[in-house]
Amino acid sequence: MMKELTTHYFMRGMSLALEDRITLAVRKLETAIAMDSGNWEALNVLGLCYYKMGEFSKSKVVWQESTKEYGQDNPAWDYLDTLKSQKFDEFCEKFNDALGLAQQGNYKKAIKVLDGVRKQGFCSVSLLNLLGLCFYGNGKYGKAITLWKSVLTLDKDNPRANDYITKTMDKHPRKVYMAILMQSIKGIFYPHRDGI
Question: What is the reported pTM?
Fold first, then answer.
């Protein structure tokens, strides 16, 4: 009975993760692991969810636990190697720099750093949420909402992004609508800059 229940939570967590409902998937997977801490597959999927959220230290912990449970041919070894790479270290350093800049109110520099990180191929829920907050702090409400909506494509139930969108829309509805309208009009008249 317990094994069946654990399997149910694991499969439901996997299904939610595949549907980009990471927040809910994490809850189900954590429940599956609480019932069976040796479920290395659930640990791996949970680590991937944490990674997508930008919770890298949690990813590392569960992947290390997974390798203890199933050492050979475990994809968690590759995941851990990613966390040890120089490129990943540089990403973390830049993200932390941007976070410090944002905390100091230097939103323009933080945006520049975070955009550079994104161009290098790193993206996570926490990065996009922070970037949205920087645009918000810079008075670019439409861009902030666009970024938070992109968070919702990675994690449809992300409570922070949903909260940020709601509060921004409540506090600055006219500015947000105008910014979104202007972005859409700009796309109509200037779909690309080549050949003009």
Answer: 0.86
